[in-house]
Design a protein that fits this description.
- By secondary structure, the chain is mainly alpha-helical.
- Helix content is about 75%, strand content about 0%.
- It has five helices and no strands.
């Protein structure tokens, strides 16, 4: 076993739970920083702050994705860098696939969506998961996006 392979003693569900926990911690820290920056800029609401808020939140989400690698490595999710790179792709697929139905009305679901996305990414990159399961899961995510675009 190399240091890049997952530890066989750790279950796939445990890896997924660890990845979801890391996503929660990273997102909470970066969204807190984004909120503080928005408050420091003097935005009190309204359309004049929308551009600043979106830019800061976008940078916060990128910061959360970048800090996922050391967090995943710290909690021994291997290969951490692959999960850290696959996580944002799964987040985008989930957001595009479920945007109109769920995410638009409840901002709290973005946090849950990120946690689910990183948990799915940890499962999808685990070499112990059969290739057929990976392909079916990735196909289901793509079909979810396609169905949302058509509807």
């Amino acid at each position: 076993m190399t240091r890049f392979e997952p530890d066989p003693a750790v279950s796939i569900a445990s890896r997924a739970a660890r990845a979801a926990g890391c996503a929660f911690v990273s997102l909470a820290v970066w969204m807190g920083i984004a909120y503080a920056v928005i408050q420091l800029r003097g935005c009190e609401g309204g359309m004049e702050c929308l551009g600043d808020a979106l830019g800061i939140i976008f940078l916060g989400l990128i910061g959360a994705a970048v800090t996922m690698w050391p967090l995943l490595r710290l909690v021994r999710v291997r290969p951490a860098w692959v999960v850290a790179l696959a996580g944002p792709a799964v987040v985008v697929l989930l957001a595009l696939g479920l945007l109109r139905r769920l995410f638009l009305g409840a901002p709290q679901l973005w946090v849950v969506g990120m946690m689910v996305a990183y948990a799915l990414a940890a499962v999808l990159v685990d070499p112990r998961v059969p290739g057929r399961v990976r392909a079916l899961t990735a196909g289901a995510l793509v079909l979810l996006v396609g169905a949302e675009i058509v509807i």
